[in-house]
Amino acid sequence: MKKFRINTAAKILLCTVVLSSCSDLLEEEPRGTYTPEYFGTESGVLGGITSMYAHLRYIYGNGYWLNACETGTDEYTYGHAGDGNFKDMDMSGAGNLTPSSSRADVLWNNAFRNINTANGVIQKGSAVGVSDAIIAEARFFRAFDYFLLAQTFGGVPLDLGSGELQFNISTIRGSKRNTVSEVYTKAIFPDLVKAVADLPAAPRVTGGVTKNVARLFLAKAYLTYGWWLQNPNGIPTYPQTDRVDPNGQNAQWYFQQAYNIALDGINAPGNYGLQATFYDVNLAQNDRNKEMMLYADHTESSEYYDGSSHSYNTGSSPGNFAVWMTTWDYTFLESSATPSWTGSPVRSVQREAAQAYGRPWKTMAPTIEVVKNTFANKTQDSRYDGTFVTTFRGNWNKAGISTPTLYNANGLPVQPGSAILTFLNDDPAQTIDYSNAVYKSNVGAGVLPGRADYVIAPNGISRYAYPNLWKIGTYRTDNGTGLGQPNGGITRPFPVAKFSEFYFVAAEAAVKGASGTMTARDLINVIRARAGKWRWDNNGNVAKVEDNSAAMIAATPSAITIDYILAERSREYYGEGYRWHDLVRTQRWGDLAKTYTIGGTAVGDHTPQTFTRNIPNYLYLRPIPQSQIDAMSGEVASYQNPGY
User: Fold this and answer.
1) Are 219 and 229 in contact (CB under 8 A)?
2) Less Cβ around it within 10 Å: N or C end of the chain?
């Protein structure tokens, strides 16, 4: 199967003609721009298709989009270096979300130019001999973007200047938003139904969309729209409209369709399937595995095709830099050259281009509730160990420091590979000495008797020091024996959709009343059984071959609720950018994320503080970016979502 890499260059405003370009799937000559005339050729249409895959990299892997989807939920709050981009999203009084500060602009500013490209391909592709299967890729991406936009902003424009769902060839400064129901029934559903019909079962190119990828998003869209029609908590929509389906169906019909299509995807997996262990889903050496159905791809082999510096990325798309936001500054960890701690300290955990480490931007921190409640079962369930970095190991030798032994907590010796600091799985029975009276931890960690590693208990997690996010961490193959280049753009693909979500979509639809051959408990237990299987203790850095599937299944409640589904989704997809949309879809954001606890921003502050978020109903829609409002002429007041 042919592999492809994508490069995009230009950024284009909504409703303009010039389109971004990239090297095409068939290795045609890269171009700087596309003109409308270029869509009159087969190579132009194929180039447009390529740019659709490329556009994923401007959204997924962008740390500010991750912030928009995670900060302020029950998964993340702001870290000690978080500025207004992060404090405003937290809703806890540290900032105030506005059309200028909302980082949902990452989606708005990239989705519409891709939609217009898709419009051009769909409109002109057949005339130049492009097959229905390839045009179906454009239909998928048009629906994909509209689905993201509708979940995030409510109703959005279907007319970009030349008619609804038409390729725009004029520059305009006006825009009219369609209703949510119109976006779903005119664009999202028809495009995805057609994509399911016309796409092949196997991908045309490595990472290409297929019939089953389209099924997954059609099932998710039906599920989301069913919730929108039902609106159990009376959340307002915008533009205002009655929550009545134009096609005459009710919410229950859509829940059943979501269930049916998700089961179709499970029963006809094609090239996809579940990995044997959760660890293998996210292990960097196993990227692009059969569970990853869609991803924003990257390459280590060429900065040109990757679109990002591999030595020093400044935090801009299309580079992948999302995980930097969730990484605390472990690089301050020090050990001593002498047992008495009288010698000069040595930075014992260096910044390294490795999945556990990478570049610390320290702007997003997990709450204490995540560690203690969401991932309460850390012994049988492998997902905590396969999600976070909780053990930071010495790597000073890779920095050229030849000292074979250093001294750490309690004056005990450590070697390269030894644990220097550990975030404990549970609060210990013994009291941790955080005083640093003798063995001084310059990051404020504590000591326990007999342990050479410094420790921080779950109750001691703070905005300053917290477990890193491992699953989307840095990975390079060119480090040699050194630290590599941890400041470069991450060259791993960023996951967008996984096969496992078929089970969650079907289970959620079943809780909402859909029925079929598998119950919600049956479906969730497939995921939980896999979570109980270990082959490697990630933070222990040792083999661990255990099968706790039976215990995991036995612990599943007989009655599955939406909150239980959401808790399982958090354990499965923590930190990947799902959470805000999950909480908004189910209208549980205001309840599940209302309060959280965490320590302060200062070094050594291990005193948990409780924070309360203010989440009024209008926040269930993100604001239209101020840049869009400023670019428009005429009456614009009614364009913005209410409350902003």
Assistant:
1) no
2) N
The single residue listed with the structure tokens 């599943």 is 556
Which uninterrupted H or E stretch holds 295?
A: strand 292-296
Local confidence band at 342 (pLDDT 50, 70, 90 cut-offs): confident
Task: Establish whether the linkage from the previous residue to 239 is cis, with ω within 30° of 0.
Answer: yes
Global pTM value = 0.94
Q: Is the distance from CB of 133 to CB of 204 less than 8 angstroms?
A: yes
Q: State yes or no: cis peptide before 458, omega within 30 of 0.
A: no
Structure tokens at 85: 């981009």
- Name the residue among 417, 359, 413 with its Cα closest to residue 393: 417
pLDDT over threshold 50, residue 164: yes
Tokens representing 567 are 């808790």
Find where tokens 């203010």 sit: 614
pLDDT tens across 500-547, in order? Answer: 999 999 999 999 999 999 999 999 999 999 999 999 999 999 999 999
CA of 200: how far to CAs of 195, 329, 375, in Å? 9, 46, 39
DSSP state of 28: P
pLDDT, one tens digit per residue, over 412-451 is 999 999 999 999 999 999 999 999 877 779 999 999 999 9
What does the DSSP assignment read for 121-182?
HHHHTGGGT--HHHHHHHHHHHHHHHHHHHHHHSS--SBSSSSBT----S--S---PPPHHH
